[in-house]
Amino acid sequence: AQSVTQPDIHITVSEGASLELRCNYSYGATPYLFWYVQSPGQGLQLLLKYFSGDTLVQGIKGFEAEFKRSQSSFNLRKPSVHWSDAAEYFCAVNPLFGNEKLTFGTGTRLTIIP
Amino acid sequence: EAGVTQFPSHSVIEKGQTVTLRCDPISGHDNLYWYRRVMGKEIKFLLHFVKESKQDESGMPNNRFLAERTGGTYSTLKVQPAELEDSGVYFCASSRMLLRDRQFFGPGTRLTVL
Prior knowledge:
heterodimer; A: mainly beta; 12 strands; globular; B: mainly beta; Immunoglobulin-like; 7-stranded mixed sheet
């Protein structure tokens, strides 16, 4: 079955430290890939997306993600986190062919400590 | 440009009652989606409107859920009668007509069924 896995439910990092959030997908072909962030009281905001081309994708707020076909992964990274990055992060996929619904992972909650 | 808005932000009802959630998409967005996140689980697709037509309602859990989008503008999602397992956060998203265009999400409605 098609699925998206975010293995880390909760991650805590120190402000200024680097961050990597993991995402793996299981699909027959490479789907479209997305990372969304939800801050408290806010809707989901798109950080970045991958459709094709360069496997390293730059997003907003200093985030980037790397698509690795061999590992079916699309991990999100940031070299130095800020306290305002504390939020919940969702990886999502959309198949190349078929309907347009997004399939989400369970999310990773990020806590930043001073 | 105003974002996707949802009303109410929070609703607490008793089992067996009826609740109607409303979503106002971004003006000019023909695609409208409903998603739901049950506590601790992934965000799951419910249905997709293109203008006033239901394009895909494969995620609707049962016939207690009724979604409408009269006139192709705002949408309502009615739950009647509500059950305990309906508790969760209901997200609405909208996008332009272009295939695979980014979906803009609202802040969600938190529904608690007691």
